Amino acid sequence: MRHENARNQARRNGGQGTPPGAAPLREKCRRYGIRFKKALGQNLLLDGNINRIMVDTAALSPEDDVIEVGAGLGALTTLLAERAGRVLAIEIDPTFMPCLEDQFGAMPHVRLFRGDVLNHDLKALIDEFLPGGERFKLVANLPYYITTPLLFHFLESPVFFARLVVMVQAEVGSRLVAPVGAEDYGVLGVASRIHAEVDIVHQVPRTCFAPRPKVDSCIVRFRCRQRDRQTIKQDENVLKVVRAAFTQRRKTLRNALGNARLFGLAREDVLAAMEEAGIDHGRRPQTLDLDEFRRITSALQARLC
Q1: What's the pLDDT tens digit per position in 166-208?
Q2: Staple 2 to which of 85, 203, 219, 285, CB 3.0 to 4.6 Å?
Q3: Beta strand 110-114 with 196-204: parallel, antiparallel or unpaired?
């Protein structure tokens, strides 16, 4: 088992989620002169049990390499270091780095990287900081303002992440798991189903944070599916159809897809393809499940041959 001695030391020193002699979180903020920035979606999570729930949900083992985005003061990082084989903790804000370096700089199985993960290729980061890894997971308290692009940065990465456990805004969580026909069922929900089985495992009230945000949060789990290259290409085409449909979600499929010029096809071809797929083009997009979008896409693709 990799880095077993370092990990055992982390357990002995940080069993309660803080390293030896560490002051409470608010004291850390004072010591390092940290002020939370609204523009970066930063809030201090006061309830350590929430981090433990996230780590338990990730089902980490010594064979797992885990990436954390938004390491902040390192409370979640400490718990990840106890369970995972290796940890890459990413933080965009330079004011947090001295705090993180003091806690984890001597731990060989914890690597720190300062930067915006959306501006970096994940495979390149993994090759540099987690070389030779075979099983990857993401565990992170996501800043609200980059939740969706960051999720798909990982879901669509050429590196397969077996599981994503993230804290997101409650509204986003609802959209991710919304059932067919629900008001908040849309592109995000369909796209997430393409990549993974998704569920909400815990609700997190806004009172758990300081400064207190205006909205509640939740912990969402993605149990991702391994896909081959052909399936990935097919799913890309499905998403083109899904996005075209929901661009005008109040309209029927006849209008939303018929006028979209999907794959360069004429309106008559698009309507015929829906009929061939057994889909009534008088329906609205929020009434279709993923399998029905796949059938439409296959029928459209067949007309290109």
Answers
A1: 999 999 999 999 999 999 999 999 999 999 999 999 999 999 9
A2: 85
A3: unpaired
